Amino acid sequence: MFGTQKRLPIEGVGKQYLKTRQLELMAVCVARSELDKERRGSSRVPKFRVNDLVMVLESRMRKNAKRPYMAMKEIHEYEIKR
Fold first, then answer.
1. Is 28 left (phi over 0), alpha (psi -120 to 50) or beta?
2. What is the predicted pLDDT for the residue at 47?
3. What does DSSP say about strands 74-79 and 53-57: parallel, antiparallel, or unpaired?
């Protein structure tokens, strides 16, 4: 780039290197799959009891909604009453 010679010997990659790299990638994939957590669906509806405290979020906090950086995220803390 800009008149300098490339330093990486891309042409010199051998088959042995590619085999070794594939083995390394398999080990990485196995390690990542072992670290996976159980997924929890967001379709679950929470059930609140009387006298539970809940935090009500600002309605503009949806995904991809434009809002000021310093805007409040929570409106207030409320107590569930019957």
1. alpha
2. 86
3. antiparallel
Whole-number Å distance between alpha carbons of 55 and 53? 7
Q: What angle do CA 44, 51, 59 make, to 5 degrees?
A: 50
Residue entry with tokens 């990659």: 13
Instruction: Say how far residue 64 (Cα) sits from the centre of its chain.
Output: 16
Is the whole-model pTM more than 0.85? no
> pLDDT tens for residues 8-22?
766 666 778 888 888
Q: What is the pLDDT of residues 24-59, one digit of tens each?
A: 999 998 888 888 878 777 777 788 888 888 887 766
pLDDT at 34: 85
80 touches 56 (CB < 8 A): no
Cα–Cα distances (Å) from 13 to 17, 19, 20, 45, in that order, read: 7, 11, 12, 54
